[in-house]
Write a structure and sequence with these properties.
Layout (H helix, E strand, L loop, with lengths): L5 E6 L10 H10 L10 E3 L5 E3 L17 E6 L15 H17 L4 E4 H4 L11 H4 L14
Parallel strand pairs: 1-4, 1-5, 2-4
Antiparallel strand pairs: 2-3
Length: 148
Amino acid sequence: MRHITLIIIHCSAVRPGQTSSAAQIDSWHRRRGWKMGIGYHYVVRRDGQVEPGRPEWLIGAHCLHHNRHSIGVCYEGGLDSEGRPADTRTTEQKLAMVQLLEVLHRRYPRALIVGHHDLDPQKACPCIADVAREYAELQPGKDCVNPL
């Protein structure tokens, strides 16, 4: 069993009108040579549907140096119509993400919820200003050791 210390939020970096289902992301990742396919464990679509990616027991491929001890959650979007990084989450996505993160928090109560850019400042992903603050009520208690 893996020891999960992080839940990492990502965006799929598509513009409004473009789609990125778990099946599409799986195809993109396989074309890049990833034999295991999709690197994320979950994809949250614009309509709020949560699609499974890799099983949680399987190490992800979504954040260099942190895959072994994390769960990757990707939301569909992240770019504005001009292709610039932007928080494009719909109301349905925000609600679905909170519900998914509540489940993951119960499963991994000591895991910090962070954005990809918190671990790799060169990345704009997930194009959310402050992931830790947005999901503060789902963060581990003060008695937990920060794994970063």
